[in-house]
Every structure is written in structure tokens, then in C-alpha cells.
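Researcher: I'm preparing a figure for a lab meeting and need a structural model of a single chain. I don't have an experimental structure, so a prediction will have to do for now. The sequence is pasted below. Please return the structure as C-alpha cells so I can convert it later.
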Amino acid sequence: MGHEHTHEHEHGPHPRGRGRGPRMGAMDMADAGWGGGRRRMRRGDIRSAVLLALGDGPANGYEVMQRLAERSGGIWRPSPGSVYPTLQMLEDEGLIRSVTIETRRTFELTDEGREAAAATQAERSGRLPWERDGDSDDRLRSLRLAIGQTHMAAKQVAHAGSPDQIDRSIAVIQRARKELYQILGED
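Model: Understood. Here is the structure written out cell by cell.
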């Protein structure tokens, strides 16, 4: 027997093409670059970002991802699918080495890696790997950064806040949303 459809399905392309629904979470909105589609970094940018993150000291893969999210103010959250292969590539190139610390695989820069990180820093002239060409408007960049930082703070409240703190946080965010629309409505 056949199945007759009497309802509509809400399917839409996921930003990464895995067929998930069309909804976007707050971080996806911050990553969307204001023009639709999730922000993705080029391989060379990911390589540079990982080198710079390890310049802060040894870290495991998860810590590298956290450092990059924090450094970008939440604007860019690298995925394990981009960070771990990059770590392996940098290890194969002799720029980092892995050591086991308390049963965790930790990565640290080699002497050559420190030189590469310094060269990367100089080559970028202060421009961070997650900053794209076209992001030259400082005000827009500041707005994006503020959104990412607010998102990170809200995640922490969600994780560690009391029910009252969560309720108060929701009210703050709802007021902010209303005030943003009021700003747009001004002449």
C-alpha cells in the first residue's frame, strides 16, 4: 500500500548541505556574515588560525577550538572537521608535535612552528584569520563582535545560571531585540 501525503514537509538546505531543516541558531546567524550562508574559512586561514592559537601555549584540539572562538568573540567557531585535520597536517609538516598530558593528546609548537606563527602574525599585519575582505567597516565588525560576545555570555548563563538568572537573561535579550527594532524605526 502507498502512503498518501496530506501534509507539507519543512525541508531546506542546511548551511553545510546535510539536509537539516532551515532553522538557524544564534551562532549560525553570527556566522552567516549578514549575507546568508555560513561563514567558512579557507584552508590557509584555518592553518594560520591554529598556529596563532598554539602560540598561546600547548592545547588539545578542543582547547584550540575554544581559543579560536574566544579570540573571534564568537564570530567564528571552527568545527572539529576543520581543526583536527589541520592539526595533523601541521604535525606532518613538523610545525607542531603532539604529547600526551594526563591521557590527553596535546599539541605544541616546535621551533619551526614558532617561526611560522611569527611569520603568519607579521604577514597578516594585525588582520585576524576570521576577518574577511569586505569587513572593513569597523562599526559593522564591532556589531558582529558584540553579537558573538553576547551569544557566548548567554551560553554561559544557560550552562551555569540559576533558573532566576536564566529568566532575567531572557528578559535582557528580549529588551535588546525590541530596542534594536526601535532604533530601525527611528527617522
